[in-house]
């Protein structure tokens, strides 16, 4: 009784060892077994034969792509054991089958393929039970199918099956491999199940339990050979199908590497060889005729084979199934990435050099493919997050750093992009594109002029080496100086920067005479310094190079208006509008010119049309805007730290205080993300984004009191402020601009599918349309209508200094000087350097006969913007009233002179960007 | 143009007009047998002044409007050539001609932006997330993904992005030109597998020419068409690159790599991050791959049997192997600044260098378990996991002992 019991325990121990491929333990167990029961001698032979063959293969593995080497003396023993077991025939049928299978395998190893096939002929593989079979037998069957496939490939026309047509034979081979692969997957799943059950039942014994299972040559072949053949035959549909079957099987530890590779390969095929129209999803049947398959080859019709048991596949409710090739590629790459990332070799000791290179190569391939997939769909935000994870591989790896920088740039995360670009410059100091990209960001919404200057100088210092980029370097530094000139508060500084900018643009133009941008910025710079005829010459040249450039056309119109050729200017604007019908900056200029040329009624019609255009542009918001709310919230929280770090220098350094017009220059399209007053097109994003603004508000304690009256996030008023501040030439408050910067970072990062019509923020644009209408009404003396329009703008941005200024204007129109003064004071408390408000304030104080205070305001205003002729004029009036006639005369003369070259809107409303 | 070509085109023009409704499908299937037709049509499009251009454009539009996929693809194969023809004419500011090409392009665009019922089409794209189960994975197997803010924020969300609806366009303007053309290329790219090699070649040529005309590289390529610079947008270049990528991998190695280089050259000059990003990635991903150039245009996608065992030696320190490792905290100060951001949900105990760091990590792990449990719709995971965690910890310790690495940091057990 005891003997019997321990005998069955022994049997299960043997079974376990066979399943866990612990062949070295078998001889000892067989010895114990033969001591127990005589009738198991044959089983002993079988086991010893198997163990010795496996041991041999472990020590002399067959490599992929090589053939077995033929008989070996060590294998003689194996044959003896097996022959003994087979000849006596005392074994139970299933053990007989096993013996035949091992024998066949031995024949294959000895390169006797025909004999191997003979052995397989004796066992009906298809009838071997998969249900309830011990784990090791699954492996044996899987190997048998693979080996049979290998033999069939080796021996032409040796198929034991009846038909000898090549197509059928190919079909038989593939079916062998596919069955082998399926059963191998099942086997691996079962092993893992047994292992984890073992861990739970026993305390984790130290020992080979944790050792990773290695697939032998046969299982590896069985798993992969089928799809390799499919692809070799140009049969992409079946190859893809096979890939998908393997990937859908629940993963095991042993298949992880295989899955990582196959996932990447399938992604490659999806990205390189498929398109939306030729795609079918993993749960669909493949199309009968596909352009993916080689039409020249005859593709055998694949018969579906039946297995009594298949590997478990991922199942459950709400499984995500991709509907498009890029989606599937992306899913596969994310899976592959997570595994590649896990394998990142971190140690940098020389012994691990090779490992590191391997892990880097496999990871960078995955990241490149991710870039291709996400780039196609414009998902740069997500891409930048993925590439961020690649950074653990990136030490001294230029490609990864540069790709991260570009993705951050494309995602609108400018500040971080600049920092990463710095590292790229360090790694590749000779490449002029990198510093140029950095300048582009610096003079864009970051408005980091000092940094921008440094980057531009790197390019210039490269000299001839920078080749075609040299001109771009000069253009870049010219733009930096030009923006600095606009920012400077001292006239001397302004003039110095203007001079520098001018000479840089001239240099750029002489280096690259066919570049319309160089000529255009030269013209713009001349215009800003009021050299109108010269500017006209260059802008015409720019238009010859690039006839439909919107900014050149706009500048031409403004230059004509400076020469008081308003009608010509209007014609140009209308011509430009025929090419750019939805360009709001052009439309604003048009309203101004129309008021002068055709009277306020026409201008009002234009305002109305603008509202219609606004509606048609931004009413078409697509559903993804609604999803954005939450992501904005996430971003605001996530970016807070980054914002803190990046904008602190602005506080200490007024020189870098960003500037109003820069908000115009951002060419990135932005999307509507703010709540709207009731009767505008329905915003799809209420509630969610409001908390996000608090992230910005936090920096803003002193300003908070203004927002108490409103339910709108105050951050946006300041954004609006500095936008509308384009009308003034100088910077608004530093804090406001900092928020503006943060806003544009966030807003532009949401661009993916935003409307592309205009560079301005939609709600800012809308508010500005209302303010323009209000101005026209004020010009007509219609106070009630002007009030209504101002109120519309105030609903959007109640704390904007431009709105407050307009309220003051309306109050003046009504003859209510005290109220006007109050509005102007509020406007100035938000934007202390708003020139127009300062001028009106000065005039009111003049009326109230408070001359010295009036003079103070006007002198400050002139300091801020020395080309504002109406301020000079007002200053003259005040001085005259004080009896200071000489100074007054001088002011009047300056005003007169400036007025002669004054455009209808400041030249600086034209954006300056690389 | 040869009289023979003209004859072929004229026959094609008249044949379709007399075709009964029922025969359209078989006619579409027979189109590919007309060997000399496609080259003849290319000639018509290239010779801008041909009298045949207008009827040809008209018929191509009729093909597209028929809704029969094979006819639509027949038209689509000429898209690169049509786009080039249109762009080169606008660059020369040649007032006459190309009106019919413009009309054809706008016609296709206006057909593509609406669905069968004439409603504006909105294309959607789901961004897969590893935190949701899919046909290829279940989230729990990636349970050890880094618990970053981003991962938390996207947890369990599948994001869908949309493109559209797009505005109907009656005319081309400077403002909408590339918007329309980019959309058309998107449609072309959606049918890339069906495109003939002559169409792919024409796409590569279009890409090269658009990128280099008016720039010094034009001399290098010896292209003598127009010499004016063409304005482009980054999105347009990205769509071109997508097509070039396909061409490169499907037989057009020479023209494809030239085109890719030219587009990258232009993107550098224009400082377009998007196009540079995708172009660089393609270049780098094909770096090792050997691309076969063969005349039959065979798809050059091949795979080999790859070893399933990890190629990375077991004793190398990898992200995985140090996952359980507890680093000594040097920057306790910074940490206390950071933590409110990363974990806004609850108070985190003040962390000192000496004692509690183990506690803190366990805290984080517990948080992760919970989110996983939620993703699976049950809290059972939470109960099971501590054991798994225990195993993992033991393993990492063993690893350390095996590696013999001196424990630089404080290893908390």
From TrEMBL, chain A:
Localization per record: Cell membrane; Cytoplasm, Cytosol
Keyword Thylakoid: no
TPR repeat extents: 398-431, 801-834
Pfam families: TPR_2, TPR_8, TTC7_N
Bias (Low complexity) ranges: 658-669
Keyword annotations of the record: Cell membrane, Cytoplasm, Membrane, Phosphoprotein, Repeat, TPR repeat
Family matches, as SUPFAM superfamilies: TPR-like
GO biological process terms, semicolon-separated: phosphatidylinositol phosphate biosynthetic process; protein localization to plasma membrane
SMART domains assigned: TPR
InterPro entries: Endocytosis_PI4K-reg_protein, TPR-like_helical_dom_sf, TPR_2, TPR_rpt, TTC7_N
One cellular component (GO) term of this entry: plasma membrane
Region annotation Disordered: where it falls in the sequence: 648-669
Principal place of residence: membrane
Every Tetratricopeptide repeat protein 7 N-terminal domain range: 2-387
Job of this protein: Component of a complex required to localize phosphatidylinositol 4-kinase (PI4K) to the plasma membrane. The complex acts as a regulator of phosphatidylinositol 4-phosphate (PtdIns(4)P) synthesis. In the complex, plays a central role in bridging PI4KA to EFR3B and HYCC1, via direct interactions.
Known partners and oligomeric status: Component of a phosphatidylinositol 4-kinase (PI4K) complex, composed of PI4KA, EFR3 (EFR3A or EFR3B), TTC7 (TTC7A or TTC7B) and HYCC (HYCC1 or HYCC2). Interacts with PI4KA, interaction is direct. Interacts with EFR3 (EFR3A or EFR3B), interaction is direct. Interacts with HYCC (HYCC1 or HYCC2), interaction is direct. Association with the PI4K complex is strongly reduced by TMEM150A.
Protein name per UniProt: Tetratricopeptide repeat protein 7B
Species assigned in the record: Phoxinus phoxinus
UniProtKB/TrEMBL annotation, chain B:
Localization per Swiss-Prot or TrEMBL: Cell membrane; Cytoplasm, Cytosol
InterPro entries reported for this sequence: Hyccin (IPR018619)
Extent of Basic and acidic residues compositional bias: 387-403
UniProt key word Manganese: no
Span list, region Disordered: 327-353, 372-413
A GO cellular-component term linked to this record: plasma membrane
Pfam families, sorted: Hyccin
Keyword field: Cell membrane, Cytoplasm, Membrane
Biological process (GO), any one: phosphatidylinositol phosphate biosynthetic process
Keyword Thylakoid: no
PANTHER family: HYCCIN, HYCCIN RELATED
Family the entry assigns: Belongs to the Hyccin family.
Name of the protein this chain belongs to: Hyccin
Lineage: Eukaryota, Metazoa, Chordata, Craniata, Vertebrata
């Amino acid at each position: 009784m005891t003997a019997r019991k321990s005998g069955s325990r022994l049997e299960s121990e043997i079974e376990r060892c066979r399943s866990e491929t612990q062949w070295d333990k078998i001889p000892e167990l067989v010895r114990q077994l033969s001591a127990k029961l005589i009738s198991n001698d044959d089983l002993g032979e079988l086991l010893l034969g198997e163990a010795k063959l496996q041991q041999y293969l472990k020590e002399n593995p067959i490599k992929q792509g090589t053939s077995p080497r033929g008989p070996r003396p060590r294998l003689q023993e194996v044959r003896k054991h097996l022959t003994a077991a087979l000849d006596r025939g005392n074994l139970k049928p299933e053990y007989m089958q096993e013996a035949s299978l091992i024998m066949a395998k031995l024949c294959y190893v000895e390169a006797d393929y025909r004999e191997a096939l003979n052995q397989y002929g004796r066992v009906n593989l298809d009838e071997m039970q998969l249900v309830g079979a011990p784990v090791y037998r699954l492996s044996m069957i899987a190997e048998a199918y693979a080996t049979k496939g290998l033999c069939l490939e080796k021996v032409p026309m040796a198929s034991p099956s009846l038909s000898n047509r090549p197509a059928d034979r190919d079909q038989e081979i593939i079916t062998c491999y596919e069955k082998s692969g399926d059963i191998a997957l099942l086997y691996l799943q079962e092993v893992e199940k047994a292992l984890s059950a073992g861990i739970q039942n026993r305390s984790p014994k130290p020992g080979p339990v944790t050792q990773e299972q290695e697939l032998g040559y046969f299982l590896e072949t069985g798993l992969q050979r089928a799809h390799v053949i499919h692809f070799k035959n140009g049969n992409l549909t079946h190859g893809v199908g096979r890939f998908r079957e393997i990937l859908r099987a629940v993963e095991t530890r042993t298949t992880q590497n295989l899955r990582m590779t196959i996932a990447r390969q399938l992604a490659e095929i999806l990205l390189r060889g498929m398109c939306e129209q030729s795609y079918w999803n993993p749960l669909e049947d493949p199309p009968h005729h596909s352009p993916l398959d080689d039409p020249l080859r005859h593709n055998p019709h694949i018969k579906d084979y039946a297995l009594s048991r298949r590997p478990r596949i991922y199942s459950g409710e709400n499984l995500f199934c991709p509907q498009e090739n890029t989606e599937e590629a992306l899913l596969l790459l994310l899976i592959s990435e997570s595994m590649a990332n896990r394998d990142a070799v971190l140690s940098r000791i020389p012994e691990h050099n090779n490992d590191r290179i391997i892990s880097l190569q496999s990871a960078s391939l995955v990241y490149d493919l991710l870039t291709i997939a996400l780039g196609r769909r414009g998902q740069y935000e997500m891409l930048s997050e993925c590439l961020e994870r690649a950074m653990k591989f990136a030490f001294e790896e230029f490609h990864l750093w540069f790709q991260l920088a570009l993705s951050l740039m494309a995602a609108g995360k400018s500040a971080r992009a600049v920092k990463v670009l710095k590292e790229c410059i360090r790694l590749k100091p000779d490449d002029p594109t990198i510093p140029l990209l950095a300048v582009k960001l610096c003079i864009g919404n970051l408005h980091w002029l000092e940094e921008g200057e440094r980057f531009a100088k790197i390019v210039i210092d490269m000299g001839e080496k920078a080749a075609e980029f040299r001109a771009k370097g000069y253009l870049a530094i010219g733009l930096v100086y030009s923006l600095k000139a606009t920012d400077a508060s001292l006239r001397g500084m302004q003039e110095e920067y203007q001079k520098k900018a001018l000479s840089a643009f001239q240099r750029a133009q002489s280096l690259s005479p066919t570049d319309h941008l160089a000529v255009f910025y030269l013209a713009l710079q001349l215009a800003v310094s009021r050299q109108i005829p010269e500017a006209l010459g260059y802008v015409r040249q720019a238009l010859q190079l690039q006839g439909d450039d919107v900014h050149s056309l706009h500048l031409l119109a403004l230059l004509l208006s400076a020469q008081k050729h308003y009608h010509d200017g209007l014609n140009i604007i209308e011509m430009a509008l025929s090419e750019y019908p939805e360009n709001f900056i052009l439309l604003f200029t048009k309203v101004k010119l129309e008021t002068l040329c055709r009277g306020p009624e026409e201008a009002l019609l234009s305002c109305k049309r603008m509202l219609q255009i606004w509606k048609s542009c931004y009413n078409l918001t697509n559903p993804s805007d609604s999803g954005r709310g939450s992501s904005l919230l996430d971003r605001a929280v996530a970016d807070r730290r980054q914002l803190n770090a990046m904008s602190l220098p602005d506080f200490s350094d007024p020189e870098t205080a960003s500037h109003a017009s820069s908000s115009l220059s951002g060419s990135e399209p932005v999307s509507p993300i703010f709540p709207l007053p009731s009767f505008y097109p329905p915003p799809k994003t209420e509630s969610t984004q409001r908390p996000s603004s608090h992230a910005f508000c936090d920096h803003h304690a002193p300003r908070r009191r203004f927002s108490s009256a409103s339910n709108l996030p105050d951050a946006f008023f300041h954004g609006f402020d500095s936008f509308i501040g384009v009308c003034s030439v100088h910077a608004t408050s530093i804090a406001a601009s900092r928020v503006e910067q943060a806003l544009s970072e966030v807003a532009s990062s949401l661009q993916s599918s935003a409307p592309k019509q205009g560079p301005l923020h939609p709600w800012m644009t809308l508010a500005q349309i209302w303010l323009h209408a209000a101005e026209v009404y004020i010009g007509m003396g219609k106070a009630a209508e002007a009030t209504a329009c101002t109120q519309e703008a105030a609903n959007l941005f109640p704390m904007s200094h431009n709105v407050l200024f307009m309220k003051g204007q309306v109050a003046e129109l009504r003859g209510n000087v005290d109220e006007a003064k109050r509005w102007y004071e509020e406007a100035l408390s938000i934007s202390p350097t708003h020139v127009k408000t300062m001028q009106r304030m000065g005039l009111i104080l003049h009326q109230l006969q408070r001359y010295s205070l009036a003079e103070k305001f006007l002198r400050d205003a002139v300091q801020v913007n020395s080309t504002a002729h109406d301020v000079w004029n007002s200053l003259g009036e005040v001085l005259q009233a004080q009896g200071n006639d000489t100074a007054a005369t001088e002011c009047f003369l300056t005003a007169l002179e400036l007025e002669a070259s004054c455009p209808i809107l400041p030249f600086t409303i034209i954006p300056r960007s690389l | 143009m040869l009289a023979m070509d003209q004859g072929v085109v004229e026959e094609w023009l008249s044949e379709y007009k007399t075709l009964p409704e029922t025969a359209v499908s078989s006619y579409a299937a027979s189109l590919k047998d007309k060997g000399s037709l496609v080259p003849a049509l290319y000639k018509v499009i290239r010779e801008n002044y041909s009298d045949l251009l207008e009827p040809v454009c008209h018929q191509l539009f009729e093909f597209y409007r028929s809704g029969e996929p094979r006819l639509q693809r027949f038209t689509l194969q000429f898209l690169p050539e049509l786009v080039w023809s249109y762009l080169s004419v606008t660059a020369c500011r040649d007032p006459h001609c190309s009106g019919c090409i413009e009309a054809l392009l706008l016609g296709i665009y206006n057909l593509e932006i609406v669905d069968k019922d004439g409603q504006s089409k909105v294309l959607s794209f789901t961004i897969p997330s590893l935190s949701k189960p899919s046909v290829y994975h279940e989230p729990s197997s990636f349970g050890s993904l880094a618990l970053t803010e981003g991962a938390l924020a996207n947890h369990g969300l599948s994001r869908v992005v949309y493109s559209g609806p797009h505005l109907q366009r009656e005319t081309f303007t400077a403002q909408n030109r590339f918007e329309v053309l980019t959309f058309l290329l998107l449609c072309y790219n959606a049918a890339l597998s069906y495109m003939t090699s002559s169409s792919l070649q024409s796409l590569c040529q279009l890409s090269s020419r658009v990128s280099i005309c008016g720039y010094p590289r034009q001399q290098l390529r010896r292209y003598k068409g127009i010499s004016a610079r063409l304005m482009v947008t980054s999105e347009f270049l990205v769509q071109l690159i997508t097509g070039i990528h396909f061409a490169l991998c499907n037989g057009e190695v020479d023209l494809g790599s030239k085109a890719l280089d030219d587009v990258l050259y232009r993107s550098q000059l224009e400082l377009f991050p998007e196009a540079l990003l995708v172009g660089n990635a393609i270049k780098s991903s094909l770096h090792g791959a050997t691309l076969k150039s063969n005349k039959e245009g065979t798809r050059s996608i091949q795979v080999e049997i790859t070893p399933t065992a990890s190629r990375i030696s077991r004793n190398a320190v990898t992200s995985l192997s140090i996952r359980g490792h507890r680093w000594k905290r040097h920057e306790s100060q910074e940490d206390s600044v950071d933590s409110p951001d990363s974990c806004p949900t609850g108070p985190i105990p003040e962390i000192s260098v000496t004692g509690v760091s183990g506690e803190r990590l366990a805290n984080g792990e517990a948080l992760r378990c919970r989110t996983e449990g939620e993703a699976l719709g049950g809290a059972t995971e939470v109960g099971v996991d501590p054991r798994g965690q225990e195993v993992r910890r033991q393993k990492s310790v063993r690893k350390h002992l095996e590696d013999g690495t001196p424990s630089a940091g404080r290893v908390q057990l």
